[in-house]
Write a structure and sequence with these properties.
By secondary structure, this protein is an alpha+beta fold. 33% of the residues lie in helices and 23% in strands. It contains 16 helices and 21 strands. Strands 14-17-16-15-18-19 form a 6-stranded antiparallel β-sheet. It has a 5-stranded parallel β-sheet with strand order 8-4-3-12-21, covered by helices on one side. It has a 3-stranded antiparallel β-sheet with strand order 5-7-6. Helix 2 (48-59) runs parallel beside helix 16 (415-434), helix 9 (244-250) packs antiparallel against helix 14 and helix 12 (308-315) packs across helix 15. The chain binds flavin-adenine dinucleotide (FAD).
Length: 448
């Protein structure tokens, strides 16, 4: 008893004033397994980035309040669950880091950030919630149940148990610096002001606004002098004005096991012919290159495993009806045949060689990306020049950003979710370090 009181005194006298940025002094009081820290952190945005940030801050013993504009958190996570919830990918970290693009990203930043919370850590974290994962043959990692709801439900439950207070239907209206940060929220009852020592903004991008990611934060940060690259559609379909004849034959049909090239970038996989153009992994992957092209276009190879010569040989001594023969001998899909036959200026194919050449190099002009609200994610966001390595805004010390609201982009494949978890992790640790808490502790990265 006497010893405990003595320890209490020692810890209290080491507390430093709120707002100071010592990064070294302890602001935490440890009583047995319990840790309580004297700083309060407000997290705004309850997607994967914000929830992860809340988890890290709560694990360090801080007082954590999480605010979200919607009546419940994780709505986009639930939408992602409809596709099975691709959480991450098993490829090597070296390859993984190359997936993240965006203007002026600091060199090596993703390697460092993923080292703090990488794909194995994310799988272990999910397992800690009782959600076992598996890697598909593509390398994509999913929960066994292929659902997001059980994971989200258990996660929120665990956060509440860890002391995180949830304030729903609170929409960020403004931020004001002072001795502590003052945060204004629009609520049903008017403006409510809360204060904290550090703030993590995890407000998402601009796609699927019904889930809460409306991009309404952009004007708030711009008024504060923070540069934000416009939010634009990423991982989205592209438009092509197909003829009615083409649509009658190919709408809803897949083009499988193909490669497509845009400028010098090549992607392999699948495309889907839709009413308005094309969707699918290939076009999502090539999105950043397509967006940079004055006249966006793809060059499709319908038979990447065969050379022109091999295809001609496979067709044998077919004298005419080359396309009809090639359909079975080359195993061309219905959609590929429809494209080869129905686009203006293509065919008729008067030799096996001309058909093989068209199958191997099939140019397609694209009009424009689909609108932002339909996209899987958005590119653009808070510019890298505005944040330090810990994702704190240079102009506004104590305010951190995380998740899709930062100007990075990644293709589908689990890289988006992993990026949101890893940036939420890093921003929260930055907030702890800024608040003078030894938040760099590796313990925080372990699954709770
Ligand atoms: C159809 C679809 C399928 C997807 N599938 C996958 C997938 O399988 N794998 C993958 O890796 N990624 C997938 N994604 C992308 C992934 O869901 C997002 O990248 C991720 O959810 C972004 O996380 P975040 O925490 O940055 O933001 P969000 O999840 O968008 O969360 C932002 C939160 O901030 C809140 N908010 C916004 N503005 C305010 C405000 N002013 N005040 C208060 N709160 C506010 C919102 O209500 C929301 O809860 C998919 C996306 C879509 C649309």
């Amino acid at each position: 008893m006497h010893l405990a009181a003595h320890n209490l005194f020692v810890v209290f006298v080491r507390l430093v004033p709120a707002g100071a940025n010592s990064g070294k002094s302890s602001r935490c009081l440890r009583l047995g397994a319990l840790v309580h820290c004297s700083i309060e952190i407000i997290i705004i945005g309850g997607g994967p980035a914000g929830l992860r940030a809340a988890e890290v801050a709560a694990a360090a013993g801080c007082t954590v309040a999480l605010f979200d504009a919607k009546p419940s958190v994780g709505r986009k996570l639930l939408v992602a669950g409809r596709g099975g919830l691709n959480l991450t990918h098993i490829e090597s970290r070296k390859r993984f880091v190359t997936r993240y693009t965006g203007a002026d990203q600091p060199l090596g930043w993703w390697a460092h950030t993923l080292a703090g919370f990488d794909a194995p850590a994310l799988r272990e974290w999910a397992a800690g919630l009782g959600v076992a994962t598996f890697a598909a043959t593509s390398g994509r990692v999913y929960p066994h149940e292929l659902k997001a709801a059980p994971l989200l439900r258990r996660w929120v439950h665990r956060l509440r148990a860890a002391g995180v207070r949830f304030h729903l239907r609170h929409s960020l209206a403004g931020l004001r610096p002072g001795t502590r940060w003052q945060v204004d929220f629009q609520t049903e009852g008017g403006i409510a002001t809360h204060e904290a020592d550090a703030i993590v903004l995890a407000l998402g991008g601009g796609s699927w606004p019904d889930t809460g990611s409306t991009g309404s934060w952009v004007s708030i940060l711009e008024k504060m002098g923070v540069r934000v690259a416009p939010l634009i559609a990423a991982n989205c379909g592209w438009e092509i004005s197909w003829s009615p004849a083409l649509l009658a034959r190919a709408e809803g049909q897949p083009l499988k096991n193909i490669t497509a090239t845009a400028n010098s970038a090549t992607a392999t996989g699948e495309l889907m012919v839709t009413r308005y153009g094309l969707e699918g992994g290939i076009i999502y992957q090539l999105g950043p290159v397509l967006r940079s092209m004055a006249e966006p276009a793809l060059n499709i190879d319908f038979k990447p495993a065969h050379s022109v010569e091999q295809l001609v040989r496979k067709l044998g001594n077919c004298p005419r009806n080359f396309l009809a023969e090639a359909r079975s001998r080359w195993r061309l899909s219905d959609a590929a045949v429809a494209l080869l036959e129905n686009l203006p200026g293509r065919g008729p194919y008067t030799s096996a060689l001309s058909l093989a050449a068209a199958v191997k190099t099939f140019p397609l002009k694209l009009s424009r990306p689909r609108p932002l609200n339909e996209a899987i994610s958005s590119a653009g966001g808070v510019c890298w020049s505005e944040v330090n390595d810990e994702l704190m805004l240079h102009r506004w010390p104590g305010v951190f950003v995380a998740g899709e609201m930062i100007d990075w982009d990644a293709p589908t494949g689990g890289y988006l979710m992993q990026g949101c978890f890893a940036t939420g992790n890093r921003a929260a640790r930055g907030a702890l370090a800024w608040g003078g808490i030894a938040g760099g502790s590796a313990k925080i990265d372990q699954p709770a």
